[in-house]
Each structure stands twice: as structure tokens, then as C-alpha cells.
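Design review, sub-item: ligand-bound model
Attendees: FS, YL, KQ
YL presented the inputs for the adenosine-5'-triphosphate complex:
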Amino acid sequence: MSLDASTSVRAEETATDTGSGQHQTGTRGKTSQALSVRFANVCRAFPGKNGNEPHVVLKDITLDVVPGEVLAILGPSGSGKSTLLRAASGLDAPTQGTVLIDGTPVNGIDDRCAVAFQEPRLLPWQNIHKNVELGLPQGTPKAEGQERVERLLELVELAEFAHLRPREVSGGMAQRTSLARALARRPGVLLLDEPFGALDALTRLKMQDLLLQVHEAHPTTVLLVTHDVDEALQLADRIVVLGRKPRETAASIAHVFTVPGDRPRNRSDEQLGRMRLTLLSGLGVDTHRH
Amino acid sequence: MSTSVETPSPKNSNATDTANDDAALQPRVAGPLRRGVGAKRAVLGAIVPLVLLLLWWLSTSVLGIFSPVQLPSPGSVVEAGIDLAQRGELWTHVGISVQRVLLGFAIGAVLGLTFGSLVGLSKWADALLTPTIGAFRAVPSLAWVPLLILWMKIGEDSKVTLIAIGAFFPIFTTVYMALRHVDKNLVEAGRAFGLSGLKLLTTIQLPAVVPSVFSGLRLALAQAWLFLVAAELIASSMGLGFLLTDSQNNGRTDRLLLAIILLAVIGKITDAILGVVERKAVSRWA
Ligand SMILES: Nc1ncnc2c1ncn2[C@@H]1O[C@H](COP(=O)(O)OP(=O)(O)OP(=O)(O)O)[C@@H](O)[C@H]1O
Ligand SMILES: [Mg+2]
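KQ shared the predicted structure:
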């Protein structure tokens, strides 16, 4: 699983987010177009129970993600990382502010996004192939859809297991299926909520490589929620840390880091090591730093 | 709800190298083991009935502890069966009872599935119908008998209706509950991939409840037999329930026992057939 280090994902960034909003098929035919994501003053509060104060989870999130960028979202548990992704996917709506994808607001389930949830969430009664098929956008011509599913299954190395049911495959295989299902959508924005969280360390490394590989094959903007600092440093162009100020329930953006160097990165790089320490301390004592 | 038997594979616990652990997962554990277990169960399950039969035979034919009116011997029950069969009455009784059960069961099942899905999926239908259906369920079902007879006379309609009522509630309840408890995460995943309405229903919600639907159907079938006997005991001129009351009135304990045994056997057969279909469906959908 070697990667071509010279292929810079940053090349996508020159495309601006003033784009026309239509999906461009691209020159290579099978590529989707990476789309920009803008969080504009996003707040999310959940109604309090029995007339209590509303529980504000996210406050004043303003963030621009350029097309093709891999953005990692770090933060302590309960800081609203999933909530942020759900707002981008349209599964949930912010109480204030908007999320814009490619310049147009997200309103309801957005077909420009695809989500891979923390759990694979596969249909137990369908085989791997059918589960990936579920990701195809509605109205995809049958032959084209089949071809795409088969190609994706090859990409995630599941082609020979396509006929098995989810309970007949390992956890890592199920996660790869979930990733393939999300990719079948040809999303402009790929939303990954701790997709490798439940995997053992080695499988996780493989999956990270796979994600980079996929990102090269199918240009897309990636929002990756993770609790693993090293994963963020390996995969992301930028890292956003969510955190709360003292005595507040709402989290907002505490830090944004730009990770130096092209991928794949040397895990023992000195600069990365320093950033790793900053990130870890930022996560630990983030409330005092902001 | 998996019915397949899996042998533990030593490799798939810490699956790291995907190519290898995949291979270990490949051979699905197969029939022989399962068939062996099944045969063992069948043998074990047959022990108690055979012992009971032996005790019955010993206490009547050999030791003569009971008089034929109290407890006729197995032989005389068989003779009673042959006698009734030769006169053609046996098949009439069995046939009409089976017909009533199947018809009532089918009607109850269709209605139960329809209303269960409606109420399970739609908050509106739930708010509108649940109190009423709950109130109807609270009526002990046999309380309907006089009313049904009054309305539909003592014909087939009243009996089939009663059986349908009996079959309706278990199916309605299981479908309704199952739809309420479909994995929210799966439904959300479906929505995230653009499914909604009817498409979401047929892709995720209905397949998810197939196993529960079948356990509801089996409960309903048992109920159908129960209600059949109730209906036939009270008012009929044919059927196994009628055979029970008729034999009681004529002091024919041998026929009475015959009817009971036939009910047990036919009930068990219909349940086993549904059980086979259920296993097929569960292995497909769960
Ligand atoms: N549907 C909901 N109703 C009420 N509160 C909610 C709801 N969803 C999330 N929350 C609250 O929002 C907060 C953030 O939740 P979220 O799942 O976004 O956290 P997270 O950062 O993803 O945490 P983790 O790392 O543990 O997954 C939590 O305090 C949670 O209780
Ligand atoms: Mg989360």
C-alpha cells in the first residue's frame, strides 16, 4: 500500500468555493469534485428537559474548509464533534448559523455529503455488495452503479468477500464496507465520525493508508472526527480542536493547526512531535489556553 | 437471531491482516454438525411422550387401573379413530377444523400486519388507533362469542371471525413493537444515504422486523387453534371441538381422547411448517 508522496492534495485548493454548485464529472471520468464547506456562526443547543435552560453544545463555530482538504476535528468527549458533522450532513440542523457546502446552505439530508459513522451501521440482512450499493445516489444507472460498486470493493480489498453478510466479516472489513458505501455516493464532502475508533492499532494504520489512497483516487473534502492525535497528524492538512472555556457548557473552536509536510508523513518527524505535544496539552488543559 | 452455528475461528479475534483473517472466515460451518444436534434433540424430545404412552398402556390394558370410561386404552382410542375414519366422519371433522383455522389465521394475519405496520410507523395512526385497539384487546376474546353468534348466526362466519380476532392481536402487537424498536442507527444511516418514506420502509424498516413478524405469526397460529376449539365447543355441528363436546355427551372417552390427540398433532404440524418458513426467513433477513 505505498502512496505516491509527490501527489499533493493541495492542488485542489486552487479551485475556489465560488463554484457553480453543479457536479463536475472531471477529466478522469470517475472523479467527483471536492467541495468547500463553510460553517458560519454555527450554534447548536438542545432543549433542556423539564423547562431547564437549553443545553448549548456548540457555539460560534466559524470555519472554512477548502475543497480537497482533509480536516481533522479533535476534542474531548462530548465537545460536539459528532454534532458538528451531523450539521454538515443535514441529519441535524444548527439552532443558529448555517453550514454552506459549495456556497449553498445545507437544508435537510444533503446528497453532496456522505457519512461513515463510528459504527459500520450495515444492513445485517444484505451482503457486502448490496450494502455498498445502498450508498449509490438515487437514479444512478444500474450498469454504472454496479461497475462503481465493484471498483470500490476492489479499492477497499473486499471484492472476493462481496457475497458475505456483515456478521460473517471482521470488524475491519465492516468498516471498509462502510467507507466504500460512503464513497459510492461520490461525495463532494466525506464526513467520517471516528471511523477507525473501534479498530485495533494495526488495522487502524491500514485503514488510514487506505483513506489516503481513496482520497487520491476520488478527490473529495474530508472532515474526519477522531480522538487520536497521531491519526490527525498523519492524515490531516489542518487540525481543529474543539474546547470549552471554563464554566461554559458550549464548545467552540479552541485551536486550528496547519500540519506541515506532505503525506505520508514521517511519524518520527521532530516538527510533528512538537505539534503532537501542543495538541495533547491543548486537549488536556484547553480551557485555560484560549 | 442467528440460527447458524459457528465454530470459533482462532484467527478472527484479533484480525489484523485482512487478507489472512478473511480466509479464516471463509468456510461457513456446515450442516453435519447442525443436523447432528437436531437429531439428538429429536431423540431427547421423544422420550417423555413415549414414556407417557407406555404408562398409559400399562395402566389401562395391562394393569386395568382405570375403567374404559375414565381412561380408555391406547388401543381403543386407535379403534375409535379407525371407526370414525371408516364412516368418513373423521375427515369431515379434521377438514373443517383445519379450514377454519387457516382461514381465520390468514384474515387475522393480514389485518394484524396491516394495522401493526400502520400504527408502528405513523405517529398519527398510533395516536388515533392505539387506545381503541388496546380497549378491544382488553375484552376477553371469548366474550365476543354471543355477539358474533347473534350477528352471524351459527355458521362458518362467526367461527372464522372469532379465530381471526384471536390471531389478530399477537401479530398486531409484535409487528407494532418491532417497528417501534428498529435500530435507530440503521434508520438514520438509511436517511443519510437519501432514503425516505416508502423506500426507507421497504429497504430498512420492514426487513428489520421480519424475524419478529414470524414469531408473531407463530403465536397467532397457536391462538387460532385455541379459538377454534372455543368456537366449536360452544356452537357447531362439525369439527374437532364438536367431536369433543359430542363425545363428552355420549360418554365416548375414547373419541374424546382421539380429538385431543388430533388437536395436538395437527397443531404441532402446522406450527412446525411455519417454523421451517420462519427459519428460512430469519436466516435470510436477520
Ligand atoms: N439528540 C440530542 N439531544 C440532546 N443532547 C444531545 C443530543 N445529541 C447530542 N447531545 C449532547 O451534545 C453534546 C455533544 O455530543 P456529541 O455526540 O456531538 O459529542 P462528541 O464530541 O461527538 O463526543 P464523543 O467524542 O464522545 O463522540 C453531548 O453533551 C450530548 O449530550
Ligand atoms: Mg461523537
